[in-house]
């Protein structure tokens, strides 16, 4: 294990440790002379309206994606887990968007949702500036992400559903259990591992979201769709405030760790209770 551990230390741990150190400096990314400023970057963040708004957008997107994507993914999994003849074709078609690079999907949807795009051409007088309206742009990002990755969640749920023995369904049907009660009392507890995996992946992916936001809106209009990830990029490579951007990255890491840790604890407890 020593060679792999040494490589991991050199490639991951050392740069991460140096990054945390730079979060307490005023480094501009180029000048070798920089000063240690302590917690100033973090205290400035508390008074930075753009940073606070980006944190709120990040949380809102992550929660919305987690709920909507997994809800749709579960419904799709229940549908294609039936004995319909086209189930295999539907599985492939529904999963296909998940294998496309997110940046490609985002540019595709940017063209579709543009003022002269196909969506407005279909809607006619009801068309909107979907990505230019501050009230709609954030939700369009959620729609694009859910469209692409609902099939991914579906596959994980489907794997969980197919691990449930058919005898359990048959016994419940003989007992006269309805579909809703059957799902809630039988399927849901047995799907606990799949639910845990999907929720963990969705919440972490939503918090770290960058590609789709940057390609669709660039964080605009104004700062209406900025997330922590896009703000990190702008502060570092546009404004040259590397120390401040790294401080934002540290905050993002802490948010991911807290969210994933808390979620895993709760879901793992529920999973054990269900089993």
Question: How are the SSEs placed, and which strands pair?
Answer:
Layout: H1 2-22, H2 40-46, H3 49-80, H4 87-95, H5 102-113, H6 118-123, H7 137-162, H8 166-174, H9 179-190, H10 192-207, H11 211-216, H12 228-237, H13 242-274
Membrane topology: Multi-pass membrane protein
Family: Belongs to the binding-protein-dependent transport system permease family.
GO biological process, one term: transmembrane transport
What attributes characterize this protein structure?
275 residues, mainly alpha, MetI-like fold, 0% strand, single chain
Describe it:
With 275 residues, the chain is mainly α. It has a domain at 55-226: Orthogonal Bundle (MetI-like fold), CATH 1.10.3720. 72% of the residues lie in helices and 0% in strands. Helix 3 (49-80) packs parallel to helix 7 (137-162), helix 10 packs antiparallel against helix 13 and helix 12 (228-237) packs antiparallel against helix 13 (242-274). The chain is globular and about 75 Å long. Pfam families: BPD_transp_1. Residues 55-263 form the ABC transmembrane type-1 domain.
- Please identify which CATH superfamily of the domain at 55-226 we are dealing with: MetI-like
What is the CATH fold-level name of the domain at 55-226?
A: MetI-like fold
| Spatial gap, N to C terminus | 35 Å
Work out the helix count.
Answer: 13
Outline, from the CA principal axes?
globular
CATH level 1 name of the domain at 55-226 = Mainly Alpha
Largest sheet: none
**Which segments are poorly predicted (pLDDT under 50) over 5 or more consecutive residues?**
none
Structural class: mainly alpha
Share of residues in helices = over 70%
- Measured by DSSP, the beta-strand proportion falls in under 5%
SSE run: HHHHHHHHHHHHH
Characterize the quaternary organization of these chains.
Answer: single chain
Number of strands: 0
- Radius of gyration, in Å, reads 22 Å
Give the rounded overall mean pLDDT: 91
At CATH level 2, the architecture of the domain at 55-226 is Orthogonal Bundle
Transmembrane segments: 54-77, 89-109, 136-159, 190-210, 242-267
Keywords: Cell membrane, Membrane, Transmembrane, Transmembrane helix, Transport
GO biological process, one term: transmembrane transport
Subcellular location: Cell membrane
